[in-house]
Amino acid sequence: MRRGAAAVCPLLIVFLAVACRAGQDVPAAEEPPYPRQSVELVAPAGTGSGYDVTARTIAQCLEAAQLVSVPLPVTNKPGDGGGVALSYLAGHPGRDDILSVFSAPLCLIHLHRL
Prior knowledge:
With 114 residues, this protein is mainly α. The protein has helices spanning 2-21, 50-64, 83-90, 104-111; strands at residues 40-43, 74-76, 98-100. The chain has a three-stranded parallel β-sheet with strand order 2-1-3, with helices on one face. Helix 1 crosses helix 2 (50-64). It is globular, with a radius of gyration of 15 Å.
């Protein structure tokens, strides 16, 4: 699995760097860099699941590339086909220190109440 993560890391780093910079102006010199505090990564499944491994790989890649200097803890919120994680996220509106890993089909299930 390490070999697979090593192959994904460079692509993931490029994608995240471009995505994080898209549409942003160059920050003013007095503006502190983002993120300023730890960023919680939420995996909508249990430890060792694909979502968990994805979130931990993202954290590892961002830290290895020195794109972040704050902790990126992974919180697992398994249950209800991702519904527990969605409820957790809904309980923290406007927070810029919580991110989650989801797939489109998983989100659509809850949007359509399937």
